[in-house]
Amino acid sequence: VKKLFKGNIIFSKTSDTLEALPLHYVAVEDGIVSSVTPFIPKDFADAQIIDCENKLIIPGFCDLHVHAAQLSNMGLGLDKELLPWLEDYTFPEEARFSDTRYADKKYRHFVKLLWQNGTTRSAVFTTIHAESTIRLMELFSASGLGAYVGKLNMDRNTVPALKESTAASLENTQKWLTHCAKYFQAENELVKPIITPRFVPHCTTELQKGLGKLSLKYNVPVQSHLSENRDEIEWVKKLHPESPSYTAVYDEAGLLGQTPTIMAHCIWNTPEETALLASKNVWIAHCPTSNMNVKSGIAPIQKYMNQNIKIGLGSDISGGNTLSMPSVIRAALQVSNLYWVYVNQDCPPLSLFEAFYLATKGGGSFFGKVGSFEKGYEFDALIIDDTNLSDENERSLPERLSRYIYCGDDRQIESRYVRGEYIPEPFS
Ligand code: GUN
Ligand code: FE
Question: What is the CA(145)–ligand 1 centre distance, in A?
């Protein structure tokens, strides 16, 4: 199937540049971009034209770190720091997901909100419960949005309702992966499993090593949390005095880049840890809204970018207070400004283009050729009608993008596409 999308085309090729092409055509064949041109390509003469007029066509947003089961806690308990916040707010809510009917209701709302906010791909944590995790995967499939979805693992230091024995945690994960291998691992599947040890304090070495083996056996990626909060880091030191660092604990367990790996936060890495992440090709999920709310700190993203580490942005609901990726982009820009002023003059502020790149092509790279409109990329797109943000003056496309990112929200998103397919509002 061939489609032509006509409008003002905006996307990133590199981290610090922006392609902004007025009234161009994106030619899409079977969901894949074949060209962006000012005219209709010859072999697309008969293609369906989706005329977006003077609107913006931008890549769909990628959320590289989000907890689906924490949606109901959005905006709650944020006077606390990470560890007490987990105990008092997060665990009681996550425990409710043993009830698959409750999970179904909450997860429908979650998928609907991702859709509303223009997040077309996400890397999602659920809870320890395999059945409700599968339910979320089915809901994603029905919606047409792409996602990696991970059943959590926890076998120590958590509340009884959420604690699995080491053996049960591995067995439940293996069963879940077997189910996924049957139902969610077609070549072109948009919804896939991801192995998800919550973080070192909640996973014994035996569990971590078992999960590392499963990631290889089933060829499944890995996501977790790393170096978010100073009390958390001290706790890891106490639990693993034998290990040179928090990052090394994951590495020794086979959970660092044996298969594609996302580590959320990475605020307090030592230079050795950063070098280890770089050498293992780990993606960092930068979660600035969450890091501000629970007082974790500011990750030196510009420094990581200079070391060619792969980086995406995460909403980290409900440490984060919004699913809106433009809001997360804004926060990334703002914390980088303050980091430069107050912390390190050698770590310059992110530019708008860089932050936009992180939320599209940067995070998108975890999903394949996603997050850009270069030839060969999957056409995930948002049609943005920014009329209600415009002023009397003629504005360039980068200015219109800037205003949308700083001042816009879901109301400007007129439609969403994933792999060239129009995505209607789910479950309505
Ligand atoms: N570290 C371990 N679990 C969590 C979580 O649910 N949210 C955040 N932000 N950090 C964590
Ligand atoms: Fe998180």
Answer: 24
Dihedral of alpha carbons 336, 342, 347, 351, sign:
positive
Q: How many helices (H) and strands (E) does the chain have?
A: 15, 17
Of 64, 72, 73, 82, best ligand 1 pocket probe by most atoms within 8 Å of the beta carbon: 82
156-185 confidence digits (pLDDT tens): 999 999 999 999 999 999 999 999 999 997
CA of 317 to the centre of ligand 2 (A): 7
pLDDT tens digits for 26-74? 999 999 999 999 999 999 999 999 999 999 999 999 999 999 999 999 9
Classify 312 as helix, strand or coil: strand
In the chain, what's the furthest Cα-to-Cα distance?
Answer: 66
| Global pTM exceeds 0.85 | yes
pLDDT digits (tens, 9 = 90+) for 255-303: 999 999 999 999 999 999 999 999 999 999 999 999 999 999 999 999 9
| Candidate of 198, 315, 328 to mutate for ligand 1, largest count of ligand atoms within 8 Å of Cβ | 198
Looking at all shown ligands, the one closest to residue 203's CA atom is 1
